[in-house]
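Reply to dn_fold:

You asked what the input looked like. This is it:
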Amino acid sequence: MRIKVLGAAGSEVPGHNCPAFLIDGKILLDAGTIAPSLNIREEHSLGWILLTHAHLDHIKGIPFLLDNLVTRNTGNTITVASGKDVLDDLKKNIFNDRIWPDFSRIPTPAHPVLRYKNIDTTRPFPIDGYRITMEKVRHTVPAYGYIIEKAGKKSIAYTGDTGPTDRFWERMSSYDVKYLITETSFPNRLEKLALTTGHLTPSLLEGEIAKMSRPPEKIFIMHLKPQFLQEIETEVQGLERGNIEFLKDGEVILI
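and this is what came back:
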């Protein structure tokens, strides 16, 4: 698998884009940034977006992507997949013909540019040679992490935004996860704020790693608030774990 980091920040400032991770040019994990990071050909190759939750910094690239595809008359459809509660938020609050057009009926109801795929946590589902497993994580709104397997390959896991959680790590233990992408949004001194908003600090991350029965080979950190970047990096380095790396926009991970 080839994972291109379109965005990995916990807020948007110059040089730091919101979370989006492109797998083999076909599948997006979250969609905080799309059009500013992909050319026309790359946009046309997209087929699926796996959303962790409906917060704006994880969905805001979708409206402009769909607008681009319709105005260019590409004829392809983007399927946005997640839990029913996440998709209901999109339908009610974004693609409602008020905030943004309902692209599930555009260009035509028979051949729309947007389709929704309601999935659940009971069993994996296939996408073009990949097997996708979804499990709940703990955040302030309904939120899910994903485990992505490719036939004959080791898998990756992605939590999206999460505070201290349990079910996802339990589910992950059943898979041969080589790489984990997870978050650390705040420094240790802001632990109370992190817990209130459903996020992690370096010390909380250390506690989550301790819960893993089979820690992955590498742990990639995303969703750092840029104003705390150096502080968080120093505290993570203080954990003295050689397998933790920080993701940067434009980086490519190969599995």
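Helices lie at 40-45, 56-59, 62-71, 84-93, 167-172, 191-197, 202-211, 229-237.
Hope that clears it up.
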